[in-house]
Design brief:
By secondary structure, the protein is of the alpha/beta class. The chain has two domains: 128 residues, Rossmann fold (3-Layer(aba) Sandwich), CATH 3.40.50.2300; 97 residues, Beta Barrel (OB fold (Dihydrolipoamide Acetyltransferase, E2P)). The strands form four sheets. The protein has a five-stranded parallel sheet with strand order 2-1-3-4-5. A five-stranded antiparallel sheet has the order 10-9-8-12-11, sandwiched between helices. Strands 13-14-15 form a three-stranded antiparallel sheet. The two termini are 38 Å apart.
């Protein structure tokens, strides 16, 4: 991975270099080949990137508040490159997160940056730049679909490919991945319209990832009595299936 650090403070650039060296040592051997360059302002960064992507950087670790053009302006300029690098903002200010993600930032880190948090950001970049080979069910789907999550003062871009299900809970929607749950505002019907090719309606309150459907089972629910439930890969939870959707789930399993 070729990485460009853009920060007007030399101490901050040095700190990131040290953290990147620590991160590299924590990666598998085949992922440890990393080169790092530095720029102290937007003009220097653009000179390194060049009109055609320059040295072919994979990732830019970008500060926001800098003399002259700020990091948001540089991120906007990078969008015009034929192959723009991934952007991870690294800043002392948390109030630009929404603007950053509108510019397709992969992640947003606040200073002082912890090694574990930087490793998470690098892993996200690797997932973005090296996506898994598409399956037959997903080959025709648009790449890079994401969901913007606001969680405890932190804004995160969640790849929709990681979502196992959406479930309506009163005024909110629970978003479940294999590792954790998130809460988002909005209506389940809006998510269904937006991500219809990827998700199947199994109940008035639930959408499940088609790729994750593994089994349809008889199930007894205290409220609805005997019925059906779906089991998903990556989760031990059973999700109720309404009677009208049983045929659709069976059809999905038969594909």
């Amino acid at each position: 991975m070729n990485i460009l650090i853009v920060d007007d403070e030399a101490l901050a650039r040095s700190r990131l270099r040290t953290l990147l060296a620590d991160c590299r040592d924590a990666l598998p051997a085949h992922q440890q080949r990393t080169t790092v360059a530095e720029a102290s302002n937007t003009a220097e960064a653009l000179a390194l990137l060049g009109p055609t992507g320059g040295k072919g950087f994979d990732l830019v670790l970008l500060d926001i508040h800098m003399p002259g053009q700020d990091g948001l302006a540089l991120a906007h300029a990078m969008q015009a490159l034929p192959q723009p690098p991934a952007i991870v903002f690294v800043t002392a200010h948390a109030d630009h997160a929404v603007s950053a993600f509108e510019l397709d930032a992969v992640d947003y880190l606040t200073k002082p940056v912890r090694r574990e948090r930087l490793l998470q950001a690098i892993a996200k970049v690797q997932r973005t730049t090296r996506p898994p080979a598409p399956t037959a069910a997903s080959a025709a789907l648009p790449e890079g679909e994401t969901l913007l999550i606001q969680d405890r003062g932190r804004t995160e871009r969640l790849p929709v490919a990681e979502v196992l299900y959406f479930k309506a809970e009163q005024k909110y929607v629970t978003v479940r991945t294999a590792t954790r749950s998130y809460i988002v505002d909005g209506a389940l019907s809006d998510l269904e319209a937006r991500f219809a090719p990827r998700f199947l309606r199994i109940h008035r309150n639930a959408l499940v990832a088609r790729r994750a459907v593994r089994a349809l089972e008889k199930h007894y629910d205290a409220e609805e009595g005997e019925g059906w439930a779906v089991r998903l890969q990556g989760s031990t939870e059973l999700l109720a299936v309404s009677r009208r959707q049983v045929a659709a789930v069976r059809e999905e399993l038969a594909r």
